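pinging the channel bc i need a second pair of eyes. not urgent but kinda urgent?? the chain im working w is below, pasted from the shared doc
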Amino acid sequence: MNEQSPGFDHKVQVFHSSGGADIYQIPMQEFPGLWGFAYLVFFNDPELGALVVLIDAGSGFGDSNHYLQSGFDTVSQLVGRKVALSDLTHILITHGHIDHFGGLNFVRQHSLAKLGIHELDRRILTNYTERLTVVAHRLREYLIEAGVGTERCQRLLDMYLFTKSLFKPVEVDFTYQSIGMRLGPFEMLHVPGHCAGHVVIRLHDILISGDHVLEEITPHQAPEQLTLSSGLHHYLSSLKLLTPWAPSVQLTRGGHKHPIYDLEKRIDEIEELHHQRLQKVLNILAEPCTIAEISRTLFEDVHGYNVLLALEEAGAHVEYLYQRGLLEITNVEELEKSQSPIPLKYRCVECTLA
């Protein structure tokens, strides 16, 4: 689910917006098997002056920081002058997932740039330890309810916490709503779902989409049971919010994968895939199943961290259907008698998606 395609381009690429901004795409290996991008933007704004803006910062794990620094060195060669982290005026984080903000500890050692993120993800950066503790607690309950055995549950939790425990909280200088969802030419649109505080950033005719819209893959979904303002309902609603921007966007660059040249078409494809997956879940639930059983049917060949992603993805679709009265829990009496979370079995009530 998170494997990088063989055609991934490991070179720094440059794009030019219709308004005169230069955008450098910096590739980074964020985790083993997962590559992604940060974006370094140069623009002379009539009011704010010379802007040097970093959008996202990689994971900070393994060689991610090295790739980020190497990207700056390559940009220096391309522009014919030294470009350093200390030159940054602003850092904009698209959303509060570790592969997009984990490199901030490294960046902050070399830069006094003003850091911004959406309100709903601010505490992920400023109160990171608390956030990690709360989510781990909710994730344990979720995995038990999903039908994951005790030992496997602990392995998945250990895997979840391992790559995230290295980050240290950082202070945020501004939130996007506090500046009217705009910084000079950078326009932010709040698109919750994949993450509660996710934004996409439009710079003239180019969209930096974070993980909201990606080529080749559908962005990962987790149930809102884990984090408020996430979940499939919010995500699909946010796709609708983005659609009016599509005609003005000539190029979409995501946090992973290849460029998107027809944003409206890609949005339609993602919506259709989720519609098909929801119907498949309904078909599976002609007989009572746990989320773990649904996950194994939907995603047959997954390993490592992708097992956890598959369980969350299946749960997001079950939650969406349950919220709409299309599913029932068949072991409610057992749940009623229990003082602790138990595996829940779901069955479809109406087996056709409207």
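so Residues 1-7 have pLDDT under 50 and may be disordered. and The longest strand covers residues 34-45. — does that match what u expected or am i reading it wrong
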